Amino acid sequence: MPAFVYKARMLTGGLTEGTLEANDQRAAVDQLRGQKLVPLEINEAPPSLGSRLSELMPFKAGVTAKDLVLFSRQLSTLVSAGVPLVQGLTILEEQVESKVFKSVVHTIKDDIEAGQSITDALRKHPRAFEELYVSMVKAGEVGGILDIILERLSSYLESAENLRAKVRGAMMYPAVVSVIAGTVTLFLLMFVIPTFANIFAGFGAELPWVTQLMINVSNNLRRFWYLVIATPIGAFVALKQYRKTEIGQRNLDALSLKLPVFGVLLNKVAVARFTRTLGTLIKSGVPILQALETVAKTSGNKVIEIAIMTARESVKEGERIATQLRKSNVFPPMVIQMVAIGEETGNLDTMLNKIADFYDQEVEVAVKSLTSMIEPIIIVVMGVVIGFIVIAMFLPMFELGNLASKQG
Question: CA angle 33-34-36, nearest 5°?
Fold first, then answer.
């Protein structure tokens, strides 16, 4: 919840200053008036050092997909049973385990009690309810089928979470193994090799270049150990800040789709997400232009977003979606052909969901192939690195052994 810095006049005539939290500036003004204060000046407070640091953290407490799925499914059941919306939110608030989400549900309930629509109440919490969620709820609210829309949202969120879980599973294994391999290598370089270096120093003989190279690397790592810690952290922060820029996000997203191994997987994930989201929105009664805009904002990839927004402008001028998607060179030909058939037959939502089902299976196959391919590659790389270090350390001993046998 944002904070606001205010200056106000008290009933006694004196001035007071302070900070308060509110959903927006209007709510902050109402809060001051409720305290018998006359607002003179009120502005949103700049982010604190703690909040700025929290933005850099990779893990944040928030509303999970599981929270949203349970919330949507339970609220759908309550609404379809004829329970008033405010009463249903009160029931759900008591059952929510997450403190963050409980606060969000409580605020939504208060806003609806104050006369706001559920769409406007949800829109105030973009971190919990993305544009897709709000657009579908708006369609359900206008069409009087809120319970049906919430049920569809639950199914959509479950499918989307399953897709994300598959991708996380594909990325987790190589990431964990790479971290372990890197840790073992650093341990050998920083703690094991110095022991050998002390032994070799007593030989008084010239070391092989491979051994000397490893010793030099080890000495530099021990001397500049802080760089070993600061470099990856600095690189992560710099990359995250670069991605926040328009050109940075576009360049990184374009690069991700062209990666040798992961690019194909990420492309299939993007297609599955695009078709599933657009199909769900159209089936829920969201107008096509609004649906395309929502899909673009929630695509998760700037390249895909630009292609969809360009298609949206073409649709506004009377062209078909498939025509512009073909020009973008982003989507596979099979997807474009099926979208074209869906537009011609008037069953675009059905065709999009079929494409999404197909690409969900493609992602699953790609994940299995990727895992089976990466595993031997990582093992070979680890073997080469560790083997190189071991050979470099034992090579002087072999040479000394050969020298001693010749002297004997």
Answer: 65
Q: Give 98's contacts (C-beta < 8 A, 6+ positions apart).
A: 63, 64, 67
Q: Taking the alpha carbons of 257, 262, 266, 272 in that order, is the dihedral positive or negative?
A: positive
Q: With respect to residue 321, please indicate whether it lies within any of the assigned structural domains.
A: yes
Q: Do 401 and 265 sit in the same domain of this protein?
A: yes
DSSP 125-150: -TTTS-HHHHHHHHHHHHHT-HHHHH
84 found inside a domain: yes
Give which of 400, 402, 405 is closest to 200, Cα–Cα: 400
HSE-CB at 53 with a 13 A cutoff on CA atoms is: 3
For tokens 């007593």, name the residue: 202
Q: From 111, 127, 126, 121, select the one nearest 30 (Cα to Cα).
A: 111
Q: Are 167 and 269 a contacting pair, CB within 8 Å?
A: yes
Per-residue pLDDT of the chain (408 residues; tens, 9 = 90+): 567 888 888 877 778 888 877 766 777 777 778 777 888 888 877 655 444 444 444 444 467 878 888 888 888 888 888 888 889 888 888 888 888 888 888 888 888 888 888 888 888 888 888 877 888 888 888 777 788 888 888 888 888 788 777 777 777 777 787 788 788 888 888 888 888 888 777 766 677 888 888 888 888 888 888 887 888 889 989 988 888 888 888 888 888 888 877 788 888 888 888 888 888 888 888 888 888 888 887 777 888 888 888 888 888 888 888 888 888 888 888 888 888 898 888 888 889 888 888 888 888 888 777 777 777 887 888 888 888 888 888 877 776 655 445 444
φ, ψ (nearest 5 deg) of residue 96:
-70, 130
> To 5 degrees, how large is the angle CA 6–CA 9–CA 10?
120
Count of domains forming the chain: 3
Supply the range of the domain harboring residue 73: 65-154
Copy the structure tokens of residue 100. 């963050």
Q: What is the CATH number of the domain that holds 305?
A: 1.20.81.30
Sign of the dihedral defined by the CA atoms of residues 10, 16, 22, 25, in that order: positive
Are 136 and 284 contacting, i.e. CB atoms less than 8 angstroms apart? yes
